[in-house]
């Protein structure tokens, strides 16, 4: 068999030789590319399991409770249309803000609001009347005029065709519109509850329609101890073009007032009882105030997308408008596994058919990646889901729905429920921590600190703002150098770990001595570390976390040739750094390039790699340039 002769060009031969050397020697060396010192230390950190209050997440206080059970950053408030537009076209938020203790929560407690506009807020009452109308009375009167005009035209057409049944129908409708108080009085006399409400408990309802205007409704439910509770309200005619037009103007005014840093989210509450996107207590297909079909409902929903650009919008149910505009979602039946999974989770994962209107709505399976997921317990005064019997299921629901915020329960909790509520709060939202940091802890002035950090999110949701992670070099007086580790923490999703490699350039002007590395997540507006990392046994100052110490030495301008990293010797670490430079994997400082150019030809290439390797192996005792 003929012999095959392999001929290598000198540069390739030298690079292969260097790489072979590295395969043997590199496992015994610890180094980071481009570092000025080969002494690498690693710190590991322990995550805390405690609830730690942080911005934009956690328990949502109720505005009327100035002594909330938990420290947090959010508060829920609501206002009615009637409160803010008493006179047509005049938007005055004074009453609404007073009723919600707005200035107390914003200015004294530094909390952000979740605002909810409600235009149908049922009240505890046995008697129906104008006091249950939550749209302005001037608007109610205009709806009557609009409806009267509509039915007058219909009556005129019916008379022209001689359709007696329609004539009778429209005459009755006109009479009810023009004499609505009579309709209300008759409704109050009957107290007849004929329609059973599906769902838990025994509930019955009854309604009185004002044609083209809206529906007065009331219901009764039976409570333990043979007690009966009556509630009722007024639901306007959502299909009215007049109502839709004025609602659009209203949303524009609300956005001017609240689309800012004092608001965390707008609850999309224009439709349905309590703004909950349902009209459970209006059951008839022809009832005027029944929940509208998608072509009408979407016009109300689009107003939120149109005017709110700086705050989140949260919808109770998936909607096409919500999908297209990255709205958040919230679950009003949290704790109850059937309602949470069979309705809420299945609906946002797969889409659903609305049981009120028959309309199909899209899936929003990834909504939580761009906007927060919220919740209220199934019954806001019921803490059964915080008892040990149900609590593991409750925790799982928080994880599965990527929960960021939850309304506080209305009443005092038992010790067991309070303990578990703390555990629940310690699992929701984002929970960011640095778990490990490695760096060269001895560096000359003008050199590089090469830092590798690992970050974890053990919570249920991401952080939804572009806040950067930074690292700072401190002396006794404060910050002397700063570098961005990551431009944003938004992409640290729950259960994920991110590794970042960062070079901190040490100013040449710094004096030798002891320094420290600190890290934190910075609010771009305040320039402060406003997020508390969930970590134990750490030194912390103003929410910045100590990584560890650095020894800064004097800049050494007489390092010998080949000592690329400046640690006083020529060894495998210098070969590794030079190889990486030749492969365009790292950058070198001017001083490092001078020490790496051991053949003195003005460039650093594989010839220098080979010479440094030969020197480290003891095959040569000096470099050509010497």
What report would you give on this structure?
With 626 residues, the protein is an alpha/beta fold. It is built from 16 helices and 28 strands. The strands form 6 sheets. Strands 3-4-5-11-12-13-16-17 form an 8-stranded parallel barrel. Strands 19, 21, 22, 24, 25, 27 and 28 form a 7-stranded mixed beta sheet that branches. A 5-stranded antiparallel beta sheet has the order 6-10-9-8-7. The longest helix is centred in the first third of the chain and has 25 residues, at 137-161.
CATH topology of the largest domain: TIM Barrel
Largest sheet: 8 strands, parallel, barrel
Query: How confident is the prediction overall: mean pLDDT?
Result: 89
> What is the H level of CATH, i.e. the homologous superfamily of the largest domain?
Glycosidases
**Class by alpha and beta content:** alpha/beta
N-to-C terminal Cα separation, in Å?
Answer: 48 Å
Ranges where pLDDT stays below 50 over 5 or more residues in a row are 1-10, 22-38
